[in-house]
Protein: Peptidase
Amino acid sequence: MSPRTNKPHEIVERALDLSRADGCVVIADEQSTANLRWAGNALTTNGVTRGRTLTVVATVDGKEGTASGVVSRSAVTADELEPLVRAAEAAARGAQPAEDARPLVTGVPGSPDFQDAPAETSSAVFADFAPALGEAFARARAGGRELYGFANHELVSSYLGTSTGLRLRHDQPNGTLELNAKSPDRTRSAWAGRSTRDFKDVDPAALDAELAVRLGWAERRIALPAGRYETLLPPTAVADLLIYQIWSASGRDAAEGRTVFSKPGGGTRLGDRLTDLPLSLRSDPNAPGLESAPFVLAHSSGGDQSVFDNGLPLTATDWVREGVLSNLLTSRHSADLTGLPVAPGIDNLILDGGEDRSLEEMVANTERGLLLTCLWYIREVDPATLLLTGLTRDGVYLVENGEVSGEVNNFRFNESPVGLLGRATEAGRTEKTLPREWSDWFTRAAMPALRIPDFNMSSVSQGV
Structure:
């Protein structure tokens, strides 16, 4: 049988039946993607793909503890299924006891659609978007600008089965759109991105109009030196910074004194106020438009993620509640080590609690400052302070007396997202956004624009 002729839930059940280990977890991920790419106001490529990945986690009990072995393979055929299970068992028998070993999760009600066929995407997802994109090409051509970019839609149906009786399933749609507008001489560039579940809420005409305005701003060039500037960070830039912050919010690392969330002298900073603004940073698997898996799907162990936690229910979690640090990332294992609440990672991130003001209204209330488009090439400099460095890209604009007066050069920045939250003087309206830097790994975010009175542009960058 081929990997497509057997239903995913049957593959999971067969792998569990083949298991000879003390415990077994099987995850079948069915993936389908559809994409469009374009350059110079014309479509260049499009395609649809299908795939399956099977992950088997075997656990073996011993006198010194429980060991685990994890093996993942794609396009597994019927003849390869048993060798895959045996490979996971062999890995477990050859491993040392797992530090994160815990009893496999039990007692979670099964998904009623566990035996249903996987959800699939196709080129039909672009039925309304593609014609609208074609109209945007025509307008851009008439306006003397060129559009480049891509649209990608992915649907992953994950089937989770365990030897303790869990039978769970989650369908995750994920759509991204990135659009660049360039002047014909390539000296001016502007970017916009969107995250979407189905492309029904994406308007190419509106995005093109937004980029046309930004290219117009860039007709006037102003050179500025490095320094600290009042800066308006748009939602996409805020998302890139705070995603890195949540990735760095390990409860264990904080308790061991290794992060910005460690308390001097020992312990963590839970309960500390991070900002005077009433902002809450939170994740919720049921957040409208940002829905994500409502249970742990762990294909490997590491940090505050554990394969032993597979199937553990996820609920809405406040990481920062009205300015106060409220939770750090933990698995059941790291929660036991640190005494912190169990708080696994959730695949979305929301910052809210700001004023009901658009970015345009925040610009209008700016006497003099910078307006960014997005950030990229973000790297960590110092984990103890979560100091990050990176570059601005595709447009930095000078705002004077409430209006954009021109485009300035790009910069390298050095800032900590924790420090930025502490110094922010204004937060705008929360809206869905696409992080520019992390869009390959994290797309479900909703953020406000932030006003930072002294953003550190550490040096001038020659990038476009």
